[in-house]
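Q: Convert this sequence to structure tokens.
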Amino acid sequence: MKISKILTVVSIALAFTACGKKMAESLSPETTKIDGNMGEYFELVEGTYPLSEYSNEFSFDIKRTAYDTAGGYTKLGIGYEILDGKGNVLDRKNATLEDINWRSSSEFLSLREGEMGKVKIYIDGWPDKLRGAETFRISINTREMDPCNDFEPGEPAEDDYVAPVAEASNNWDSILDEYERYCDKIIPLYKKAMAGDMSAMTDYASAMEQAQRLSEKLQGAQSTLTPAQAQRLSRISAKLAQSVM
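A:
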């Protein structure tokens, strides 16, 4: 099971916060211009893009406006700014360059001039910082592959690549332990809030902090689950989904 799917399940546990907080339902581009070194090749597509109340995932459309002569990219960074109706920045993330891999929203790089595609990001400040949010801005940076300089000293060249050996065990077991403890904590808290017990909201801040830490661990993990771990995750996720939906 891929990490992006797991993050959606983790985020769903925070749906009960809507009892005490009202976040924006959608965002529109503050400008179609894109900042960063990809701004001359792409633009945002005008429209109203919905925000999920169950996940920090946010998708929008992008259009290729000019031909790109680059032969290929090894690094990609997508940043954003979320703004309120007065133009104040509510949440921001820089377009920090990271290796392009299966977690990267990089399909748009292969678009032809005039074609449109969808880009997916994750909003770190969800849902707290989205109260009063109305518009967003995007920045995209890339680094082109340089055959002469793209390898660090001591790093094997492509022809010398050796596949990594799978470890006998990974850190997913401890992360799943933490995830299960979190679910056991959040489910009764959610039920109390839905029953009208507003005192349960006093635990909101600590629950959000724990969820953020857990999301960061899941996002930063580089491996996939073993079959046994995937089965365990499915069991925990099913229990959580049945309790908060």
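Confidence is low (pLDDT under 50) at residues 12-21, 150-169.
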